[in-house]
From TrEMBL:
Keyword annotations from UniProtKB, A to Z: Cell membrane, Fatty acid metabolism, Ligase, Lipid metabolism, Lipid transport, Membrane, Nucleotide-binding, Signal, Transmembrane, Transmembrane helix, Transport
Protein name: long-chain-fatty-acid--CoA ligase
Gene Ontology, cellular component aspect: endoplasmic reticulum membrane; plasma membrane
Signal peptide stretch: 1-20
GO molecular function, one term: long-chain fatty acid-CoA ligase activity
Organism: Oryzias melastigma
Entry similarity comment: Belongs to the ATP-dependent AMP-binding enzyme family.
Domain AMP-dependent synthetase/ligase intervals: 65-385
GO terms for biological process, alphabetical: long-chain fatty acid import into cell
Superkingdom of the organism of origin: Eukaryota
Known catalytic reactions: a long-chain fatty acid + ATP + CoA = a long-chain fatty acyl-CoA + AMP + diphosphate; a very long-chain fatty acid + ATP + CoA = a very long-chain fatty acyl-CoA + AMP + diphosphate; tetracosanoate + ATP + CoA = tetracosanoyl-CoA + AMP + diphosphate
Amino acid sequence: MALSLSLCFLSAAVSGLVCALVLQPLCFPYFWRDLLFLLKVVRSGVKLELYRWRRDVRTVLDRFVEQARRIPDKPFIIYDGSARTYRDVDRRSERLARVFLNTAELKKGDCVAMLMNNEPDYLCVWFGLAKVGCTVAFLNTNIRSRSVLHCLDCCGARTLIVGSDLLECLESILLDLQQKNIQVWTMKSHMKHTLVRSLLDQLDVESDDRVPAELRATTAIDTPMMYIFTSGTTGLPKAAVITHLQSLKAASGFWAFGATESDVIYTALPLYHSAASLVGIGGTIELGATCVLKKKFSASQFWPDCRNHGVTIFQYIGELCRYLCNQPKTEMDQAHKVRMGVGNGLRQDVWRDFLFRFGNIKMCEIYGSTEGNLCFMNHIGKIGAVGRSNVFYKLLFKYDLVKYDMIKDEPVRDQHGFCQPVKKGETGLLLSRVSAISPFFGYAGNKRLTEKKLLRNVLVKGDAYFNTGDLMAEDQEGFIYFRDRVGDTFRWKGENVATTEVAEVLGSVDFVQEVNVYGVEIPGREGRAGMAALIVRPCFLFDGEKLFECAVKDLPAYARPVFVRLQDIMEMTSTFKQQKFQLVQSGFNPSTISDPLYVLDYHQRSYTPLTEQIHQSVLSGEWKM
């Protein structure tokens, strides 16, 4: 009898196991991949929490110094065909650190701004400053004079280091910098300018002996270690606070996706953005891998570079992949070792075209903002999804999708004042709860802007959520999809455009009475192109040449409105905000819009009338934007 019962139990167990093995791939096809990925996330999180409890933080810079000792002769950066080893960059950054200490007289805790293009010395300067214990502020190389001064003010920088190829950008504000007692240094030899000093001249006389390690040491993982500037609703750039916690999380991204130290990573994104610096360089350091660094992205050089250097992973934004797909087809399209792409903003149609043409490359989308407290990672490679979620992820990172009123431009709240979550598959505003696990560190020098990014009393009284400003949807399988961006920011040419900044610049033109800036979709193009609805002052006429001159002089290329629409009345919402929704929906088609339309014309150096012929040229991609 006992033997019979044992056989029954054994038979039932075997049957259950067989059923589980059969049903699991059908009902839970991503179970094991989700579990393995989540274990990596938990492992990384536990390590960070141990840093917090022990108050002994091993930073990304500490990891770099460790790698320079472990693999000194391994190429760390390949730039313009030549390699800099881990030892090379380590020693040069040590010599720079001594210049910063002995000649520039910097000390631990000082904030130093960097205005440099991608080059190996960007990393040497960055690491040299970090070795002294300075907080580093990365400036966008597209910003103009007024914005440079604003950025320095809001992060409290009293030293500016500028690349040799960007000195001309500062000519108009050098006296202003001097009056503010801001010292300017450049990576150029034999400077004759009295207001700019040469780092290279000082570098030649310094040793590469290590500066004291205690200068870079930190006991708090939440200590700010840099500022990265991001556009927002206030117009001028905002200094997002980046702590050691955020930098360490970003540096684990490649590892979480399965990268190893044998990988060669291709980065053509600007280092002043978190994707290239924190994820790209930080991730390379964490692995002990090699990074092929480009000054700028070139669609024609991309695949030859990948073949020449044995690239296995590349960083992208969606626009980059579209440029590659638009290149002439060749028989070498799949002759490469690239196995993975890591980035964001890849449209489904471009994604499919890219894989069909260039082979079986796993595209790993990352969703997140520089200052945000939430990150989604599409580790499955599901086409079109920006991230992946499941019940375990939600236990660790609390987020919600809530109903959003596009007309009123605000979340929908019920009779009790609380937001209303959307159902699975529905589009809603993505909010991420602020907690000890997911803190929000805000912006330097402006508590008001920090508070403005928070929504309070969202689901229960007293809670606080970070407002991403993004409309998202989550399907039944837990994949997250980006739908649209709300508010006063849109994305064009891989950059965030602050509509109020553009409006302020255009509003300075004498014939402009009121401006409403927004983004419009162009079929086949990533993001949204800028468009400005204008009201012309009484007794004035629209002057396309004057508006062009203002846009080119005071706005970076990606922020210049591509289209202009003249209106007699500016529509407002019930809360007295400019109405954008209807303008965005109507687009820029001259055959359906009765208002006068103009287009940015670089050939004529003016905003010229948008004709049906030009409209078709824009749609076909022939018009220069």
